[in-house]
């Protein structure tokens, strides 16, 4: 009994869409996946479960793809010790067959094309961005209630209703409306250093606070007005007071107002305005490579000497400190001199020149303070929450 359950578990892991059709485990039906496509198949085993006497039924499309591999499949049926092994072999053979065979065009029934044209007319041709020559791939545009434009690409089959899919897509857009409102406010009222051109799927923003000082926030799309993950970047003497204010004031977080306004209230700051300052006021080049953007990253490590404050790329700083004869390393922390002021600093290989506040501890304290109606203040090393890989 246990052996049978284990075998079924192994088969489910290898092929989750192929399911047993009876309690004896002699009939399986479902789909085998290869190269992102699903193929219908049915496997019938004899009562003695001998694979060599098994019967395999499939669609004519799959049969045509595997036509030149029949003798190999028969050999595998005789040589494989169990059904799981055979399914693994079948998927491998199918992958090879798909690579070596030109795409077979399967004509859809006439009803498919008439239904597709009818759905497109219902939606409106102005929503169609692209349709391939086989009428199996359609790209549509949609507009949410805030007027934001979105695109969806669909791979259709004969059972799909374009109208139903489009309506589901609109419902999904509306469920994310509050999240995009939050991110649009941040993008419109602050200087976002990263990402440079945020896509709608981007959940993080690195917001400029001052010269060589910024905060990286990670927003939960499902709860965009809750306290986000906050990761401060900058010199210790500048970011430490911000961490303290965040910890001391987090009981003031109000889910009824915007995330940006909450951050202003908790940190007791006004973010630099786009109307007054330029982005170049916050984009100081790395002190080692003399560039601002390196392989898509910007300087995020800052010397905490108040008279220095020079920013560096993480990769540049790590390579510099590794090359210094005077540097020393203890586990994942390197101690070395700043390239500009020569003062000894420590650098965490996890990516933090400074210790930063732990997000999970901050969130915990927020909820605890709300429950107890009192404020909490904690300081916790980032590396303690996120161990080196």
TrEMBL record:
Residues 110-158, 178-274 form the FANCL UBC-like domain. Residues 285-343 form the FANCL C-terminal domain. One of its GO terms (biological process) is interstrand cross-link repair. Gene3D superfamilies: RWD domain-like, Ubiquitin Conjugating Enzyme, Zinc/RING finger domain, C3HC4 (zinc finger). InterPro entries: Fancl, FANCL_C, FANCL_d2, FANCL_d3, FANCL_d3_sf, FancL_WD-rpt_cont_dom, UBQ-conjugating_enzyme/RWD, Znf_RING/FYVE/PHD. GO terms for cellular component: Fanconi anaemia nuclear complex. Residues 10-95 form the Fanconi anemia complex subunit FancL WD-repeat containing domain. SMART domains: FANCL_C. GO terms for molecular function: ubiquitin protein ligase activity. PANTHER family: E3 UBIQUITIN-PROTEIN LIGASE FANCL, UBIQUITIN LIGASE PROTEIN PHF9 FANCONI ANEMIA GROUP L PROTEIN. This is FA complementation group L. The lineage of its organism: Eukaryota, Metazoa, Chordata, Craniata, Vertebrata. The gene is FANCL.
